[in-house]
Amino acid sequence: MMTYEGPPKPQLPAPPTPSPYTMAVVTISSPEQFTTLLNSSRIVIADFHAEWCGPCKAIAPAYDSLARQISRPNQITFTKINVDEQQQLAQAYSVRAYVPPPSSPHPTIYGYVLYKSNKVGLTPDRLPTFIVFENGRVKETVNGADPQKLNGVIQKLATEASKSDGGDAGEGSSGGSWLGAAVTKPYADVTDQVETKGLELLNRDDEFGLPRVLFEGKPSALTGKDKSNAGKDWVESDTDEQLMLYVPFQSNLKVHSLQITSFATNDGDDDEAPMRPKTISLYTNRSHVLGFDEAEDIPAVQKVEIKPEDWDAKTGTVNVPLRFVKFQSVTSLVLFFSDGDGDSEKLRVDRIRFIGDAGDKRAMGKLEKIGDEPGE
Description:
Radius of gyration: 26 Å
Organism: Penicillium argentinense
Strand content: 25-35%
Number of helices: 8
InterPro entries: Galactose-bd-like_sf, PITH_dom, PITH_dom_sf, Thioredoxin-like_sf, Thioredoxin_CS, Thioredoxin_domain
Keywords: Disulfide bond
Domain PITH: 179-374
Mean pLDDT: 79
Oligomer: single chain
Domain Thioredoxin: 3-159
């Protein structure tokens, strides 16, 4: 006797293969997650979008393609930020989805809420918004679904990053992405604003690096590379322990703090071994480097003293906080390293980083000096 078992059970489709897009793009679920990415990745591209936004969906394949081609761990990171779910981030970066017409009595940063409820007639304006960050700082903003413009901006930054990564220390890449200490938010690394052609360093030992090495990438002392034949990527003092460094900037800066890196390991038994800096005097907005006698007669804007325990054992770096109100519109800095932590007559500095905010670009004019190389 035959029994009726009903129609055959439909077979469930196989689960979809994960898209490369989901692997290349990080979906932001909290402001804290985004802050962590800004700290860990040199370049971050943020796609502010909404699920109901047609232009956002239209440009998604182009963004997908860019992410697959260009993403590099800890260097170039693509993210997506849903403005409905992450309103705090949208507000922080002034991302507007829709703006009301001038006659509207209901101006709001989230005009799309009114649009969706049909209470007010609004017109599309800002979504999607793409913001490109470099070293934690906003570099470019692209409003609307413009894949050609977005591609141009990202490709340019990616090319610059590749050139910087491919060169050895000593090739003159100002503002390397390496940092020896954490950066206090909302400030950023603004070392890329150093005008390397205008650098001057007095009492520099010619057997060591030129002034520009102070602003390059990761020190060779941390990479393990042998610099004996390739040129030493740090500076040391010559006739005594003092150094006088003049640093002009491309922009008007607000300087919050300094990071000084030194891998000197003077244990007191070797009088010739270089020391780490101890006392640093800072002078702002000078048109040229100060002479040593001149600096002694001019009151410093700030004088700091570094204690041995202040240095980070792993990175050889000390964070030097500044009196922020006194460093609000800085076009140049003179750093006078007057002594070191020990009795040696040699002082060593590997890297310097400036932390703060960058303002408008300056008209630099001519920076002509005697000698073929900066600092000579």
